[in-house]
Amino acid sequence: MQTPIVRYVQLTERIPPLRVRLPLQILVMVSSPSGYAALDVEREQTLLEQALEPLRASNQVDVTYVERATLRDLHHALRKRPFHVFHFIGHGGFDRTTDEGVLLLEDEQGRGQEVDGHRLATVLQNRGTLRLAKPERSYLSHWSGGLYLNSLDHVVKANP
Fold first, then answer.
1. Residue ranges per domain, the chain?
2. Element (H or E) spanning 100, and its range?
C-alpha cells in the first residue's frame, strides 16, 4: 500500500488513534546542504525543542537527531533502535520530470542530494514502530505532493 503526502486527504471513515508505548521516539533529520539557500537550522531546532520540552520533561517524548542528513546516516539511525516518528527539516520540491515530490538531503560531502519518495521509502519501510513521517512545512511550501512512503500508517504534509 502507498500513502501519499498531500495537503488534505478526504476519508470516508475515521482513522483510529495510533497506539504507541511511551516515550514517543522521534527521529529528526535537519538538512541544510551547501549550494542552496541557507536555513535557520538553529531556530528550527529551538522551536522544536521548545514545543516538545514539556513532553520531554514528563518522559513522554524522546528526540534523537540524525548525525548528518545523508541517506546512509538515516538508515544507520533507524537500524540502531525503533522510532515512531520521522521529522524532516529541510528543503523539498517537486520533480516535474518524474512527477514526484523530493526531499533535499545531503551527500557525503554536504552537497544537496534530491531523494524521491520511492528511494526514501526503501529506508523507512518495514520499520514496525515507525508510524508517522512529517516534513517540516516551512520548507515544503511549493511541494505539491507525489511523495509516497510504503508501510507507514500516516504521512503528514502540513499546510504552509
1. 2-6+35-155
2. strand 100-106
